[in-house]
TrEMBL record:
Gene source species: Aureobasidium pullulans (Black yeast)
Molecular functions (GO terms): O-methyltransferase activity
Protein name: catechol O-methyltransferase
GO biological process, one term: catecholamine metabolic process
EC number of this enzyme: 2.1.1.6
Record key words, sorted: Catecholamine metabolism, Methyltransferase, S-adenosyl-L-methionine, Transferase
InterPro entries per record: SAM-dependent_MTases_sf, SAM_O-MeTrfase
Domain of life: Eukaryota
Length: 327
């Protein structure tokens, strides 16, 4: 299998929340398709041209334009209208002042959910995206939707930006986030949630929604939010910490030296208890099941990728770092 766009982590699509609040999981499925890749092959730029040609001026018209491209041209890894309806209803009921999403992609969720936060008298919607190309497209979608100034798209590593956000004036009072939506690099789900706990962004009363935690999903994340406070405390006492997968992913994807040494582990706040609810929702194209053949194929692909990662890291940064950031 050859990746036509080596700078885009296409594999992240298949790799595999809060105290006194709720954590909702919207599981992922692998869609039957003739396309080997679901992102980073030029479809995002084609999407932008498509949307611009339609000249949308509102959040709903931008979302409709994106949906039409995904339905009739090329599949897009967005939350789609069905999941968007679930999320906007939560936003309407919870009325968050500040909402953060990890994994903005081309801005679909930033437009739809950002508009919902604004309509609920919120103050700001922040979208973090690791890829500069996707982030620039997302900003243009936000602009066309008339949400620039309310929706802020940040580009970079999620762990770095989470720390910057916690230290910013927006959170100087220590209130933390009202709503966190996680939909980025699947192996980073757990680490970034625990980091958000440690730095005070996730606290008692925060709502966290995590997409795509089914199969292949994010099993470690799911196990954590279902774990009891007592078990989490025992793990901390045994010295268990959650390693940071962001450094490896960023290094392999961006080819930058130095960041791979930024290996950080976290313990979170084990005293926080999660009231967890799992929901099943359709993908944008209407499918929601993964067949056994696809699942076995994924497992084999993941094993091959793990071997490749370890070989690359061993060659590039030495065996010691390989031990730190390998599986």
């Amino acid at each position: 299998m050859t990746d036509p766009s080596p700078n885009i982590p296409w594999y992240k699509a298949y790799t595999g929340s809060t105290p006194q609040g709720r954590v909702l999981h919207l599981p992922h499925s692998i869609t039957p398709s003739t396309n080997t890749h679901q992102l980073g092959d030029g479809r995002e730029q084609s999407l932008l041209t498509h949307v611009r040609n339609l000249s949308p001026t509102t959040p709903s018209s931008v979302a409709t334009a994106i949906d039409s491209f995904g339905f009739f041209n090329q599949y897009l890894m967005t939350i789609g209208p069905r999941k968007a309806t679930l999320l906007t209803s939560l936003i309407t009921s919870r009325k968050p002042k500040i909402m953060l999403e990890l994994g903005g992609y081309i801005g679909y969720s930033a437009v739809v959910l950002g508009a919902a936060v604004k309509a609920a008298d919120g103050e700001k919607y922040i979208s973090i995206e690791s890829n500069e190309v996707f982030a620039s497209i997302a900003r243009e979608m936000v602009r066309m939707a008339g949400l620039d100034g309310f929706v802020e798209v940040q580009v970079g590593r999620s762990d770095f930006l989470l720390r910057e956000l916690a230290a910013s004036a927006s959170f100087a009072s220590g209130e933390g986030l009202d709503f966190l939506f996680i939909d980025h690099y699947k192996p980073a789900y757990l680490h970034d949630l625990m980091l958000a706990e440690e730095i005070g962004l996730v606290r008692e009363g925060t709502w966290v929604v995590a997409d795509n935690v089914g199969h292949p999903g994010a099993p470690e994340y799911k196990a954590y939010v279902l774990c009891s406070v007592e078990e989490k405390r025992r793990k901390v006492q045994r010295g268990q910490r959650e390693a940071n997968p962001n450094a490896r992913n960023w290094y392999l994807r961006e080819g930058e030296r130095g960041v791979e040494a930024e290996e950080e582990s976290v313990v979170g706040r084990p005293e926080l208890e999660y009231d967890t609810e799992c929901l099943e929702a359709f993908e944008p194209d209407g499918y929601h099941h993964i067949d056994e053949v696809s699942w076995l194929r994924f497992q084999k692909m993941r094993q091959c990728l793990d071997i490749l990662y370890k070989e690359l890291i061993g060659i590039c940064v030495g065996d010691e770092t390989m031990t730190l950031i390998g599986y």
